[in-house]
Amino acid sequence: MPLIKKKKKVYPVSENLLKYLKQYGRALKMPINYSDLLRYETSITLYDKKGNDTLWSTVLFSDNERNEIHENLRKIYAILKANGDEQLMRHLYVERIDICEYGNTLPFRVKIVNRFNENYDYFYIKQADESRILGLELEHLLSPNRINYVVHEETLIEEHIPGIPGELFIQQFINSNNSYLDEIRLAKEFVKFNERCFVRLLGDMHCNNFVIELTPDFDETYYRMRSIDFDQQCYEGNIRVYMPQYFKENNPIIYLGLKGMTPETVKQYQKEERAVMRYRVRSQRYQIKDFMDMMVQEDIAPKEHIDELKEGLAKHYNEPKFLKCKTMGEVLKQSLKMLFVV
User: Fold this and answer.
1) Per-residue CA distances from 166 to 132, 231, 277 (Å)
2) What separation in angstroms does the CA of 136 have from each of 95, 131, 139, 193, 340?
3) ∠ CA 262-267-272 to the nearest 5 degrees?
4) In this structure, how many other beta carbons lie within 10 angstroms of the beta carbon of residue 310?
5) Half-sphere exposure of 254 (CA within 13 A, CB side)
6) Contacts of 165 (CB under 8 A, 6+ apart)
7) Which of 159, 183, 208 is the last residue of a domain?
8) Region for residue 227 given its phi and psi (left: phi exceeds 0; alpha: psi -120 to 50; beta: otherwise)
9) How buried is 264 (Cβ within 10 angstroms: 0-12 exposed, 13-18 middle, 19+ buried)?
10) Domain count, the chain
């Protein structure tokens, strides 16, 4: 049975959240909106190098609009990467604009290329969904990963998060018995990733919604799992939605942990990750306080989801304070407080 039964609705950006975003430099004026990209004339299915459907389609604009849109997209990239320095744009060009028609918010992906060396990068333009913005900000504040994004009116612009898609990693490294795979290190990272998602209540982290970074170090390899989908931030009521260990798509990674780690080792890694998260909360306590003061007022989930989740967390932690929470923000605030319970 799937953990998530219904498609999540899109929550518009509130004035409360917008005020916070402006305070911390996340709300900026941009030369183009999400709606501007919807004016494309036609689209072509995009295939990968092996001829497989990528589930993305390349969109084509009329001659009258293409040059202006491409110029504005270069400006956006300069804002994301170089604080708007227009010198950066001179050698860049937009090679392709794609739309993901199966995505919850129909995101656009822009491929931008350096004409001197053909090096390329991506960024995304999406409908601004409050849940996703809250998830991005929490990722930036509480995870080991920095996230670059900006909001303009009803438009969300995100930088690309590099890494091997989880599903592809499982196919190429685990199912194929890749000899270079360090099973214990990967399993250790999954335990820590699972703990991060659970504490900050980020849901739906099956292998299609995270990527894996590989960092060679002498004769070893380090792994880092990074979320790429934040739509299910503090939304569902089922406590298991916030634990990647319960998604069957992640089973190949979970089996590595069952094979190579003891329960005591798992608890050790969980404590290590919670200790690091405690440090992040303390070191950024003023911004996190501003964030939580804003979030506790937000309406980002149905009341029945809030009631189900707070009851599940109260039972999990044996902490009745969860039962007093009235909003998802209050539930998250209490979850973060549990980091400091020894």
Assistant:
1) 20, 17, 23
2) 27, 9, 5, 15, 23
3) 125
4) 24
5) 12
6) 207, 208, 211
7) 159
8) beta
9) exposed
10) 2
3-state secondary structure of 333: helix
Q: CA 135 to CA 133: how far, in whole Å?
A: 5
Domain range for 182 = 164-340
**What's the chain's length in residues?**
342
Nearest to 120 by CA among 96, 85, 149: 96
User: Cα-Cα-Cα-Cα dihedral of 129, 55, 34, 133, to 10°?
Assistant: 20
Q: Sign (positive/negative) of CA torsion 233, 238, 241, 243?
A: positive
> Tell me, what DSSP letter sits at residue 112?
E
Query: Contact at 8 Å (CB) between 83 and 66?
Result: no
The span from the CA of 326 to the CA of 322, in Å, is 9
Predicted confidence at residue 1, as pLDDT, reads 43
Q: How far is 171 from 119, CA to CA, in rounded Å? A: 27
| Residue 24 falls in which region: left (phi positive, over 0), alpha (psi -120 to 50) or beta | alpha
**Full DSSP string of 178-192:** -TT--HHHHHHHHHH
The Cα 227–Cα 100 span in angstroms is 18
Q: What is the mean pLDDT of each run of 10 residues along the chain (342 residues)?
A: 72 96 96 94 92 92 93 92 79 94 84 93 96 97 94 95 96 86 95 98 97 90 95 96 97 94 96 97 97 97 97 98 98 97 73
Whole-angstrom distance, CA of residue 180 vs CA of residue 220: 9
Residue 140 sits in the same domain as residue 182: no
Would residue 9 count as lying in a domain? no
